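Protocol step 4 of 6: structure prediction from sequence.
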Amino acid sequence: MLKWLAVVLVALLVLLQYRLWLGEGSVRELADVGQRVENLETENAPLRARNERLAAEVVDLKTGLDAIEERARNEVGMVRSDEQFFWVPDAGDGEAAP
């Protein structure tokens, strides 16, 4: 009787150990999921930084006129009515004069 009980308990122990190390939700699977999470976090870090920069720019554009003016000057070439604009071409663009 005790011999059969010992065999059943050993079989149960082996079955539980199999599930722990190799079955569904095992330690190996947990390590794989942890590695995938780490890889995704590494991929998401630059995207999070970009999102933070864009969010700061949106807040700046919503609240301040200076940011809107700066953007208009750089992208559209805005000049105020009380300013004079002088365009100076780069010296390295054309051929040298004789």
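Step 5 (inspection) to follow. The two ends are 113 Å apart (CA to CA).
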